[in-house]
Write a structure and sequence with these properties.
Layout (H helix, E strand, L loop, with lengths): L1 E3 L7 H15 L5 E3 L3 H7 L3 E5 L2 E6 L1 H5 L8 E6 L3 H9 L4 E9 L2 E8 L5 H10 L4 E7 L4 H17 L2
Length: 164
């Protein structure tokens, strides 16, 4: 079965029903669909292929593709009682940290520590150790983002074309 944008224009209940139908049918049949809505890929696909200008540029499970995202394994935390510059400086010293962003939101700082290697479990342990005496209100590990992977793979070619 080949489908093109199977849930485009549907309300949330209809999307849920169509996704359930696709998953059930996909247990015994090959279903291929074309979509630019990456939420659909996460919701129903067991495999995703990104095609750019007629060429396959990525092929894998949605989880495998998400691991190619800079966000894969990043640790985001919200702390209070510190400045954004102090948070960024301290977290930037971590061995597994590639980059750190920190911004002030009222009296809290939201920081994200990006790993040198996607899915690096050491980063989470290092952040936990580094922040054990901080006033941490929230901390979680980020999943990779398919939209970012798509853009990083296809945008360079698009940017080149646009500059001609």
């Amino acid at each position: 079965l080949v489908l093109d944008e199977p849930t485009d224009g549907l309300d949330p209940n209809q999307k849920h029903e169509i996704r359930s139908l696709i998953r059930r049918m996909g247990e015994k049949k090959a279903i291929i669909f074309s979509t630019h809505i990456l939420e659909e890929v996460d919701a129903v696909c067991s495999r995703a292929i990104i095609i750019d200008r007629g060429r396959i540029v990525a092929n894998g499970t949605p989880q495998e593709l998400r691991q190619r995202s800079d966000w894969a394994g990043a640790v985001t935390l919200r702390v209070s009682g510190m400045t954004a510059s102090a948070v960024k400086e301290n977290l930037s010293k971590l061995r597994s940290a590639k980059k750190v962003t920190a911004e002030t939101q009222g009296t809290r700082i939201t920081a994200t520590v990006f790993p040198r290697t996607a899915g690096d479990g050491d980063l989470t342990r290092e952040v936990l150790e580094a922040t054990r005496n901080w006033q941490v209100e929230e901390m979680h590990t980020e999943a990779g983002r398919l939209d970012e992977v798509f853009r990083s793979i296809t945008l360079p070619d698009t940017a080149k074309e646009g500059s001609k």
